[in-house]
Amino acid sequence: MQKKLKAMPVSRRAAKQKVAIFDIDGTIFRSSLLIELTDAMIQEGIFPKKAGMAYAKSYKNWLDRKDIYDKYVWDVIVSFEKNIRGVPVKEFLRMGKTVTAFHHNRVYRYTRDLVKDLRRRGYFILAISHSPKVMVSEFCKSLGFDKVYGRIYEVDVKGKLTGKTLEPEVIADKAKVLKRVIKKENLTLRGSIGVGDSESDIRFLRMVDKPICFNPNAKLYKHAHRAGWTVVVERKDVIYTLD
C-alpha cells in the first residue's frame, strides 16, 4: 500500500515594506533647523555677532518679498560653515540638542498627521535633510521616523569641527539616498509616498508613486503643475489640497 505524500507548504516571500520619504525643513518643521541653530549659536556667544550680519540683508529682503527664501537660507549656510570652524564638537552637540528640544513641537499639522497615519499603516518612514544629522535625529525621534539622513561634520584630532561636511555629494542627492535605503532595508517603491517643498526634492519625488509638494516654492510648484502632482498648502489653520 502506497503512502500518500503530504503536500509541502508553498514558500512565499515576505511582502516588502512600503516607504515614505520626507524632507524636514519647511515640510515638517516650520522653519529650518540650521537657521535656528545658527541664531542660537550667536545668542550664546559661540559665534560672533558679525555671523548674523552675513545673512541679515537677505533675511530682510525675504521678509520684504524682494528676494527668495533660498537666498536667505544659503547665506545662513555659508555663515554657519565659516564660523563653526574651531568650535568644540561637545558644544555643537549640546547646542543642537538644546535647540531641537526647544522647537520640537513647531510642526505643520498636515505633515505631522500624515507621518502618524503612515506609521499606523506600516510604512517605513525616512527623513533626508540638509540640516545637521544630530538635530534631524533628535527632531524626528518623537515623530517615529525609522531612519534619518543629515549633514555630518568633520571633527579634527582635538575634538573641534573643521567646517567640512563628510560625504557632501551623498546628502546633496536625496534620490541616491533613497535608492540606497530601499536596497539596504529591502523596501519597495510600490505605493510609496514622498513629501518635499523645493526644487531640490524633485529627483526623489519623481521616484515615488505619490509625490506631494507641500508649501512648494515657485520652481517646485511649476514642475508639480506640469507633472500633475498633488500640491498641499497649509496657511494659518487652513489646509488646501490642489490636485
Can you walk me through this structure?
- It is a single chain.
- It contains 10 helices and 8 strands.
- With 243 residues, the chain is of the alpha/beta class.
- The chain has a domain of 150 residues: HAD superfamily/HAD-like (Rossmann fold).
- The chain starts with 16 loop residues before the first strand and ends with a strand.
- The mean pLDDT is 92.
Question: Briefly, what is this?
Answer:
With 243 residues, this protein is of the alpha/beta class. Helix content is 45%, strand content 23%.
Give the overall pLDDT as a whole number. 92
Quickly count the helices: 10
- Do you know the CATH topology of the domain at 17-30 and 107-242? Rossmann fold
Radius of gyration: 21 Å
Number of strands: 8
Largest sheet: 8 strands, mixed
Order of helices and strands: EHHHHHEHEEHHEHEHEE
The CATH architecture designation of the domain at 17-30 and 107-242 is 3-Layer(aba) Sandwich
Proportion in β-strands: 15-25%
Terminal CA distance reads: 69 Å
Q: What name goes with the CATH superfamily of the domain at 17-30 and 107-242? A: HAD superfamily/HAD-like
SSE-based structural type: alpha/beta
